[in-house]
């Protein structure tokens, strides 16, 4: 199959990384892959590194005739069979570009919670054109069916796929402790994700004074760059908060990374502090690396952590609860190890990349009905 992947997001996080993972995996399965992306982004750079043929644009949401024309031209020139979209905002450009090209199938991978009903004529037009939605979690599948104008039968739950070989703590050498001279006896707590108000890094900074009362040498590592819309502003705000809370010497801003395993392996506790989470790829990766995980009880996180069986759940925007959970894991090594082991076992049982990618490839080749029958 000739497949055009489309993703115009500006950021670099789980969504973008997984879109590239999917494209590379489909290429290895014999599909001819093209990728239409936003120019000048980390996604563009990663596609070059992965040797995926791509075209960069800088489109305006929803009404960009040049972008629509480019999509249509690539589809016709390359004889594209399938468009695989990765962001709902891009459907507003893709669907008009496909007018009159009914033979081209449109698949949408939706890994974000839909915040509310989208049942106006515009969205009904968009989703009528979508053959099927791929959802990374059952909670997201139900959410999409509730708020999008598409039948539940056309939404398929395909678990996120994790590269189990890559995320194996026994095979990965850490970089954080060596780079920042952090002794192995010092508790290292980490968040991997864009610096963004939505991600909740500020709540962990607020929790640090209480943690330091019990573990004076503990370190919080914030691993990630700012979201593009907050570039040059949000890191300064977080640094100011750390100074205000008198924990600047205990909070590290490491910058972004494309090598998450080498950063995860050094952590004692991984925290998913987001205020609203769909289903965190970073959290799954931490579980695969057999790390003790704390996650905010929002979106699909409770499903991911088996409602507390594979990690501790706390309320969003509650630094006190985050502190208590971190201390609980640092004080009780056997509990931390038990949760980490169960988390790793769950990921290895349900989130194997090869299984997930084989299912997507089957949809490419045979359509959704082949998966359901």
Label this structure with key terms.
16 helices; globular; 373 residues; Rossmann fold; single chain; 6-stranded parallel beta sheet; alpha/beta; 13 strands; 42% helix; 2 domains
Describe it.
The protein is α/β, with parallel strands linked by helices. Helix content is 42%, strand content 17%. It has helices spanning 14-28, 42-49, 65-77, 91-97, 121-129, 138-147, 176-179, 201-214, 234-244, 260-264, 281-288, 301-304, 319-331, 333-350, 353-366, 368-372, and strands spanning 2-7, 32-38, 53-57, 82-85, 105-110, 132-135, 155-157, 188-192, 219-223, 251-255, 269-272, 292-296, 312-314. The longest helix has 18 residues, at 333-350.
* Uncertain residue segments: none
What does the average pLDDT come to? 94
CATH class of the largest domain: Alpha Beta
CA distance, first residue to last residue: 22 Å
